[in-house]
Inverse folding.
């Protein structure tokens, strides 16, 4: 009779299927981790990667949990996401904001290979749903191939390069060329490898929903070495990472989505060639001189939008659920964030923040905090805001209110929503803004209050 070692040999030689092997392993004496390890090693060998040596090296640093504690009924209060952070051994940027993503500290990232540096961004307002990381690839260097069960939106801060993307089990790699300003969303669980093709360091910010996924499954083998290909999202389509005008879709909005907007444009692709140049649509519901486009990236649940507002203007204050990370693409100004009152000046000092921003700044309003953006520079100011579960194609209900709170964030507080009309705002808001503009020699372009 065959024993488990015969079954392992048969599986490695391709004589029996994955399913059959898994069943034999389960009824035999092979432990769960050993089974998973053999299954994923076989998947690595099948993937058209950089050769067995590298794949093997990558595997050791990537998916395999370091500890395998016996299951216990004890309350441990272990947070799987924070355990993962410790294991990564990189700087972790906390607080409410980062003044310049291009200058934030990064350190060598062992898991991703020589010439690659990184840092995690785990800000207060991420509330354990969204985090970011910085990745910097030296000229001539490349990241080890990786795949995982959390979603990503990548924004290129500096440099130029190329990403190779392929589904588990697929031999066809798709290549996407990018440069500063590009947005790339590698689809869920694809293999991805980033290569610097320029002469200077290539640095990008990646926003992910990794904490939710790692906390839920608390099994790194499952999250980082999973063979499932999400072909409903991505199946190697030639135009998946296209950047043409055909990627824009217009939708008329309902009163619930927004009482003041007459429709919304959505960019539906895995790629935006240059977020700083992308054409936007006028969008009055959030304030004067305001333009935006929604981004439906790689069929993700994570949502993003790009917003721009003119010199001499500021947006209406609003609030919604957590995780909306605002990345300034250009311009100069400040943002107020507060909680505990409709009026900024009445909010308790501990929940009253002012963030001065320039190109490369990042901040995220915590769950349910009002926030309001002010342009004090001579040019339009534009940002991209990837967020946890928005109100786009995949409307989410859970965790911090999800999509529903984003819709209420576009509806006036007069009608039970979470958007403060200019007429209803704290008078100190406009006084502060007018004084700032005077200091900068910039003309006020706000509409007169009724
Ligand atoms: Fe917001």
């Amino acid at each position: 009779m065959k024993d488990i070692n015969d079954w392992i040999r048969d599986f490695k030689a391709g004589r029996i299927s994955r399913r059959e092997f898994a069943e034999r392993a389960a009824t035999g004496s092979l432990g769960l981790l050993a089974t998973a390890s053999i299954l994923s090693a076989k998947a690595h060998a099948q993937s058209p990667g950089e050769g067995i040596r590298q794949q093997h090296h990558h595997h050791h640093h990537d998916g395999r949990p370091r500890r395998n504690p016996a299951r216990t009924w004890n309350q441990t209060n272990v947070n799987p996401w924070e355990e993962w952070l410790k294991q990564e051994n990189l700087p972790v940027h906390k607080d409410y904001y980062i003044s310049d993503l291009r200058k934030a500290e990064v350190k060598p990232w062992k898991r991703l290979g020589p010439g690659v540096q990184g840092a995690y961004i785990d800000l207060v307002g991420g509330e354990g749903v969204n985090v970011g990381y910085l990745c910097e690839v030296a000229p001539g260097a490349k990241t080890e191939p990786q795949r995982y069960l959390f979603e990503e939106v990548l924004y290129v801060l500096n440099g130029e390069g190329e990403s190779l993307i392929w589904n588990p089990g697929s031999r066809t790699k798709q290549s996407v060329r990018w440069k500063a300003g590009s947005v790339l969303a590698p689809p869920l669980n694809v293999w991805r490898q980033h290569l610097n093709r320029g002469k200077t360091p290539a640095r990008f910010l990646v926003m992910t929903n990794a904490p939710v996924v790692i906390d839920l499954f608390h099994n790194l083998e499952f999250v980082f070495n999973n063979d499932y290909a999400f072909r409903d999202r991505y199946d190697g389509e030639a135009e998946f990472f296209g950047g043409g005008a055909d990627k824009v879709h217009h939708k008329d909005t309902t009163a619930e989505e927004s009482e003041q907007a007459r429709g919304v444009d959505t960019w539906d692709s895995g790629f935006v060639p240059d977020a700083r140049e992308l054409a936007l649509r006028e969008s009055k519901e959030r304030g004067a001189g305001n333009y935006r486009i929604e981004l439906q990236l790689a069929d993700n649940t994570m949502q993003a939008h790009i917003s721009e507002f003119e010199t001499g203007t500021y947006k209406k204050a609003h609030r919604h659920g957590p995780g909306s990370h605002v990345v300034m693409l250009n311009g100069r100004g400040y943002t107020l964030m507060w909680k505990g009152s409709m009026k900024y000046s009445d909010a308790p000092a501990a929940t009253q923040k002012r963030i001065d921003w320039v190109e490369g700044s990042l901040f995220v309003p915590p769950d349910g905090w009002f926030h309001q953006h002010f342009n004090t520079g001579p040019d339009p100011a534009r940002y991209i805001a990837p967020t946890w579960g928005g109100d786009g194609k995949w409307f989410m209900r859970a965790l911090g209110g999800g999509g529903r709170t984003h819709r209420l964030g576009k509806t006036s507080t007069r009608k039970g929503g979470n958007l403060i009309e200019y007429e209803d705002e704290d008078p100190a808001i406009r006084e502060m803004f007018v004084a700032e503009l005077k200091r900068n020699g910039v003309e006020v372009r706000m509409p007169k209050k009724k």
